[in-house]
Write a structure and sequence with these properties.
By secondary structure, the protein is an alpha/beta fold. The chain is 36% helix and 25% strand. The chain is built from 9 helices and 9 strands. The protein has a 6-stranded mixed beta sheet, with helices on both faces. Strands 2-1-4 form a 3-stranded antiparallel beta sheet, covered by helices on one side. The structure holds adenosine-5'-triphosphate and magnesium ion (MG).
Length: 261
């Protein structure tokens, strides 16, 4: 079953009194449990698309369905988890209280079938740091707490907007492995924005490659690398082929010309 359906969705903004199309009509689907990646140049509309899916921003046209329902209803029913580039934790609250916050907002009786805050803290590898404040954690640890918080209401769909963009490469690989493990356990359908081709190929079942002005999907790359994925899969021919295809779709012939130079 399709967990996420985006059909003919476009976005126009009024900029300096003119209507500018920042995202052309876009189609995209993910089945339950699939991991999608969005990659493309700055300004091509990746965050805008994520915000429309999350019901933060209305589309100018088109249809979005999450588990068969419109984004407003999915959001009301807490079916969408969102992780931002900046962890956005409340600095005066402990890790445990940050992870628990959405439960408090909807009332603790809701979602009893989901994981407890402690289970999610264990899942993201923060056991022992329940009572630490965000300021006492590294960037990667803060981002793990933000992921735990996004999962606390057992959403059907997890949206991640460059969640690891601010991390160094070593921490980023570690977080990629963690997120793959978390996803394998929770089976949450996920859509992640990234600027890293390697990260997109390592994480995703399907990569949507976007171009800018106007933003649009120019290629959809199915990643045939088997799961579970360890870092060693980066040496496989399937991995190299997917990286190559994404790179060509992003840069066209430009790199070929550089090679010849
Ligand atoms: N509220 C807004 N009003 C007007 N224009 C906007 C608004 N939000 C975004 N835009 C424009 O829409 C385009 C897409 O922005 P968006 O943030 O979705 O890009 P992005 O692909 O996420 O880029 P980046 O990789 O830099 O995060 C940009 O040209 C931006 O200036
Ligand atoms: Mg963005």
């Amino acid at each position: 079953m399709e967990q996420l359906t985006v059909r003919g969705v476009c976005k126009r903004f009024e900029i300096d009194g003119r209507s500018v199309e920042v995202l052309s009509p876009t189609d995209l689907t993910l089945k339950a449990g699939e991991f999608g990646a969005l990659i493309g140049p700055s300004g091509c509309g990746k965050s805008t698309l994520l915000r429309m899916i999350a019901d933060i921003l209305p589309p100018s046209d088109g249809t979005i369905l999450i588990g068969g329902h419109e984004p407003a209803r999915a959001r009301r029913e807490h079916e969408i988890g969102f992780v931002f580039q900046d962890p956005t934790l409340l600095p005066w609250r402990s890790v445990l209280d940050n992870v628990r916050l959405p439960l408090e907002l909807v009332g603790n009786s809701a979602r009893l079938s989901g994981s407890t805050p402690q289970e999610l803290i264990d899942l993201v590898g923060l056991s022992g740091f329940e009572h630490a404040r965000p300021g006492q954690l590294s960037g990667g640890m803060q981002q793990r707490a933000a992921i735990a918080r996004a999962l606390i209401l057992s959403p059907q769909l997890l949206l991640l907007d460059e969640p690891f963009g601010a991390l160094d490469e070593i921490t980023r690989y570690r977080m990629n492995m963690e997120l793959l493990r978390i996803r394998a356990e929770t089976r949450t359908t996920s859509l992640m924005v990234t600027h890293s081709i390697q990260e997109a190929v390592f994480m995703a079942d399907r990569i949507f490659v976007l171009a800018a002005r106007p933003g649009r999907i120019v290629d959809v790359v199915e990643v045939e690398v088997e799961r579970p994925r360890k870092l060693s899969v980066m040496n496989s021919p399937e991995f190299a082929a997917a990286v190559d295809r994404v790179r060509t779709s992003l840069f066209g012939d430009a790199l070929g010309m550089l090679d010849d130079a």
